[in-house]
Design brief:
The complex is a heterodimer.
Chain A: E1 2-6, E2 9-13, H1 21-28, E3 47-50, E4 53-56, E5 69-71, H2 73-76, H3 82-93, H4 103-114, H5 125-132, H6 142-156
Parallel strand pairs in A: 1-5
Antiparallel strand pairs in A: 1-2, 3-4, 3-5
Chain B: H1 12-18, H2 51-58, H3 60-63, E1 78-80, E2 86-90, H4 99-111, E3 118-122, H5 144-171, E4 179-181, E5 184-186, E6 192-194, H6 195-203, H7 231-234, E7 251-256, E8 264-269, H8 271-274, E9 279-286, E10 292-298, H9 301-310, E11 312-316, H10 325-336, E12 341-345, E13 356-364, E14 376-382, E15 385-390, H11 395-406, E16 413-417, H12 433-447, E17 454-457, H13 460-465, E18 473-481, E19 487-496, H14 506-509, E20 510-511, E21 514-515, H15 516-519, E22 530-535, H16 551-568, H17 573-580, H18 586-599, E23 610-619, E24 622-633, E25 636-647, H19 654-670, E26 680-681, E27 684-685, E28 703-708, H20 726-738
Parallel strand pairs in B: 2-3, 7-17, 15-16, 19-22, 25-28
Antiparallel strand pairs in B: 1-2, 4-5, 5-6, 7-10, 8-11, 9-10, 12-22, 13-18, 14-15, 14-17, 18-19, 20-21, 23-24, 24-25, 26-27
Helix pairs in contact in B: 4-5, 5-6, 11-12, 16-20
The chains are: A alpha+beta, B alpha+beta.
Chain lengths: 157, 750
């Protein structure tokens, strides 16, 4: 048993300590909003926040997260997180998703990024690109991702 | 996969299977289709009042006009709850291209539905959900909107007529005096009845055969920029895909595939795998193409994957061809000099004496589709009946394949089409490879005493190494032309594996030894004397259509060569194309002109170091022209700006067309960037994940503006046509800067 704190709730996970957070979330806890894309920290589809930092859950074992705060897409977009809500709303407004499979990870990266932007500041396009470069979208929604991140930043500024 | 409807006919055996459970009565006297219907009862599970069944009770003749096929009846497509929520079933796979919203828009337009109450769901392998043009289940050839435009309009109009009729009965007035708007029927004195209130009565009425459709000028929904119906779910982690399938007791399988395509097992040592906590079974399973694999079944992906990694396997690769990409290229070059099949046979004798000549060779590598959602398929088999959940472009063929592997009658297999995380062709297999595999796992598991449903899930490495690539191609071109750019002879050769030879599509799509998907996009719309020779070598590498299919290579070849002729003869590449495009291709000219006008081509002063690039190409009956701005920095080509001129006739959803052009352009760009190649060494695929098969990232995305030519003609598809002209437009800009044409993808700057 590994004790994890997920979206503010303490959960006991009965899985091998080497199990990546991704599979504990998806297969053990049934939280499927976090997606499997590459299994090698290359595509960002599995992005979650560990103590507020964006991490790749497909390569981070639960043993490394015991007792720490894991936040997933489900909590970030449920309305309770101001930055997450702004990002979610911008994603819908800009109709970003095509297949949508990578978008959980994109939103998690965007939210973590915007939480680092100083109040009143707007990120440049280069800064947005740099923050989002770890997340692959095979459908090619990048133009709308850029616009949505910029829009969310404006809402928050 | 540019199916020509006029010439496309399914083989009789396939057609028979595809229509196997037509709307005729089953053994029970009820129609075999017992789908959710237009009902007044909330909830899908309560869709037990199929219109057909009720009609059966009252006499089928009244309710089911002779002329209507299942795919023309609202019963399988429209479900209206008491609160007016209108759920529309789509007869295609949505894997990002937006038919999940586009098809409901078309139906809702004629229904006069309240769009805020419209939802959509995927269909199944039920015969109602075949493509009306092909008579089989298929999402491909950018045909969803094109082929189902009239179908979904008529479905909406029929449903509307039934609701109006129900209101007329209730109000005791003539139906022709009633109007509909935004989900309500409006009667005398402005009184209203909501569709939800009328649904129960409407569902008992006969389905009208003939319905009057709206004049396009009266459209309120079609043509309006409309957000995706799944935008909320896909922006919050709540959208379920095939991979998210969960069933009670479900297990997960990860399969070890042979290192060389088609190889079989010599020995299996599974002792370490079985020792891993959570592993339930290790099973030998047959794979497609006669290969064998080993499935590790466990209570989750992670233990299954760990189990697979712990297998000690010996493979017998002696009996299978071991392709080597370098040798393959040498073989293709040799083959290109030999006589082959002729697609075009113009006289090219004047080529030798032409004042200007081009002698070019183009090389295109294998490409993986790499959809973001790894391939998966969940199968449940109980009591001689199977259910399959998967994101598939061909649920009908998959259902038949599943039936064969599982040993059950085809009508006992239900394929539930799942939202898919991309596909680009990889989910449209005539061999049903990943479905066959998942069914093989379940079959073997049941033989081993495991009755649970099993989700078979591929890793990214399985996907990249798993075959079914865009085929490697070699083109050679010898072109003679005069000082005005008039082509006097064009001798062209294409060498590449056929997608369809040996498949059930061969009779329709392979003519005189030439696979139509290999030559689509050649020559047209240019009036040039071309001799086109085609070779289809057979190799042990599974190949498949990849978004825009033949045009992934033919557009590049045609549009860069045309540009080279223009450059050589010092002509403007736009003016030269306009001159060469015949008058019978006005859509090409309109799309190109639009891109030129909107981009400022020839007028705007470019930033230092940048050049214009142009290309125009028709695929799947839509034309896309790109005018791009590119530069070369430290030997690396960079794409800055893209302006698209699109001709897809009537635009159903401008937001969707824009998205598809943006996405198609980016996938076109993916072919140009370093690393975009699958290669083989001694039969083994050398790439494995996004580290060695990189795809574009946000930092590669150019600025892109999409413009459409206004038209009221019935729409043509946009899932693929945005892809083909991107790479040649980019290449032409780079060639304008360097003076050297690019003749290979990915780009190689000398």
């Amino acid at each position: 048993m590994t004790a994890l704190n997920i979206n503010g709730k303490d959960r006991q996970v009965d899985a091998d300590p080497s199990t990546p957070i991704l599979w504990a979330l998806r297969d053990t806890l049934g939280m499927t909003g976090t997606k499997f894309g590459c299994g090698a920290a290359l595509c960002g589809a599995c992005t979650v926040h560990l103590n507020g930092q964006a991490i790749r859950s497909c390569v981070t074992p639960i043993s490394a997260a015991a007792g720490q705060k894991i936040t997933t897409i489900e909590a970030v977009t449920d309305g309770g997180d101001k930055v997450g809500k702004a990002v979610h709303d911008a994603w819908v407004k800009h109709d970003v998703a095509q297949c949508g499979y990578c978008q959980s990870g994109q939103i998690m990266s965007a939210t973590a990024f915007l939480k680092t932007v100083a109040p009143g500041k707007l990120p440049s396009e280069a800064e947005i690109d740099s923050a989002m470069a770890g997340n692959i979208c095979r459908c090619g929604t990048y133009a709308r991702i850029r616009a949505a991140v910029a829009d969310a930043a404006k809402t928050l500024a | 996969m540019n199916f020509d409807q006029a010439t496309f006919e399914l083989p009789a055996n396939l057609r028979a299977l595809m229509t196997r459970h037509d709307d005729t009565a089953g053994p029970s006297g009820l129609p075999r289709r017992s789908f959710l219907k237009l009902t007044a009862v909330s909830g899908f599970a309560l869709g037990v009042f199929p219109m057909g069944a009720l009609a059966q009770d009252k006499g089928a003749a009244a309710a089911k006009p002779e002329g209507l096929k299942p795919l023309q009846q609202p019963a399988a497509f429209v479900h209206i709850d008491r609160d007016g929520t209108t759920t529309i079933t789509i007869n295609r796979l949505d894997f990002g291209q937006g038919v999940q919203t586009g098809l409901p828009m078309i139906l809702a337009e004629e229904l006069d539905a309240d769009w805020s109450k419209v939802r959509s769901v995927h269909g199944t392998n039920d015969p109602a959900y075949v493509d009306p043009a092909f008579g089989m289940h298929i999402t491909g050839g950018s045909g969803s909107i094109k082929n189902s435009y009239t179908q979904y309009r008529e479905l909406g109009a029929r449903t509307r007529a039934m609701l109006v009729s129900a209101a007329a009965t209730q109000w005791k007035v003539d139906a022709s005096t009633l109007q509909t708007r935004n989900g309500v029927v409006i009667g005398p004195g402005g009184k209203q009845l909501g569709y939800g209130e009328l649904a129960e009565a409407a569902m008992k009425l006969p389905v009208p055969e003939a319905v009057k459709l709206k004049d396009p000028k009266d459209f309120r929904l079609i043509g309006k920029p409309t957000g995706r119906l799944d935008a909320q779910a896909k922006s919050s982690g709540h959208q379920d895909y095939g991979i998210d399938m969960r069933l009670p007791g479900m297990l997960t399988a990860v399969v070890s595939h042979p290192p060389v395509f088609g190889a079989r097992l010599k020995s299996v040592d599974d002792s370490a795998a079985k020792a891993i906590k959570g592993v339930k079974a290790v099973l030998r399973v047959p794979l497609d193409r006669g290969a064998e694999g080993v499935a590790v079944v466990a209570d989750g992906y992670w233990p299954a994957k760990q189990g697979r990694d712990a297998l000690k396997l010996e493979w017998d690769i002696s009996g299978v061809e071991k392709v080597d990409s370098e040798k393959q290229l040498a073989q293709y070059r040799e083959l290109a000099t030999k006589p082959g099949k002729r697609k075009y046979d113009a006289d090219v004798s004047k080529l030798a004496s032409a004042p200007h000549k081009i002698d070019a060779e183009f090389v295109f590598p294998y490409l993986a589709h790499a959809p973001m959602e790894p391939l998966n398929c969940t199968v449940s088999l109980a009591g001689g009946k199977a259910e399959v959940w998967t994101g598939t472009q061909m649920p009908g063929i998959d259902g038949l394949a599943a039936a064969k592997v599982l040993g059950v009658p085809p009508e006992n297999v239900k394929v539930h089409v799942q939202m898919a995380g991309g596909g680009f062709g990889r989910r449209g297999l005539l061999t049903s490879d990943y479905v066959v595999e998942a069914c093989g796992v379940v079959k073997a598991a049941q033989a081993a005493g495991i009755a649970a449903p099993i989700r078979t899930l591929w890793s990214r490495e399985d996907d990249i190494k798993g075959g079914y690539y865009r085929p490697m191609h070699l083109h050679t071109a010898k072109i003679g032309f005069d000082a005005q750019g008039k082509v006097t002879g064009w001798d062209h050769v294409i060498v590449g594996q056929s997608l369809l030879m040996g498949s059930m599509f061969e009779p329709m799509m392979v003519k005189d030894g030439i696979d139509a998907t290999a030559v689509e996009g050649m020559k047209e719309p240019y009036d040039v004397p071309m001799r086109l020779t085609v070779h289809h070598p057979k190799l042990n590498v599974p190949v498949l259509w990849w978004r825009s299919v033949g045009s992934t290579h033919t557009a590049f070849v045609m549009e860069t060569l045309l540009d080279e002729i223009a450059r050589t003869t010092k002509q403007d590449p736009v003016a030269y194309r306009m001159k060469l495009i015949g008058d019978q291709h006005p859509r090409h000219k309109a799309a190109l002109q639009l891109a030129v006008d909107k981009s400022g081509y020839g007028k705007k002063k470019l930033e230092a170091g940048r050049a214009w690039g142009v290309a125009v190409h028709e695929s799947f009956n839509s034309v896309v022209a790109y005018v791009v701005e590119a530069s070369v920095k430290d030997g690396t080509p960079i794409l800055h700006n893209v302006t698209a001129g699109v001709h897809c006739n009537l635009v159903v959803n401008p937001k969707s067309v824009e998205a598809q052009v943006q996405g198609g352009a980016l996938m076109g760009l993916s072919m140009c960037l370093p690393g975009a190649a699958i290669t083989l060494k001694d039969g083994v695929v050398e790439q494995s994940n996004f580290n060695d098969f990189p795809v574009p990232r946000i930092t590669d995305m150019p600025q892109i503006a999409v413009h459409t030519v206004p038209s009221a003609e019935p729409p043509t598809g946009m899932g693929e046509p945005g892809l083909p002209p991107l790479a040649p437009a980019f290449a032409n800009a780079v060639a304008a800067l360097t003076g050297k044409p690019l003749r290979a993808l990915p780009f190689k700057l000398a």
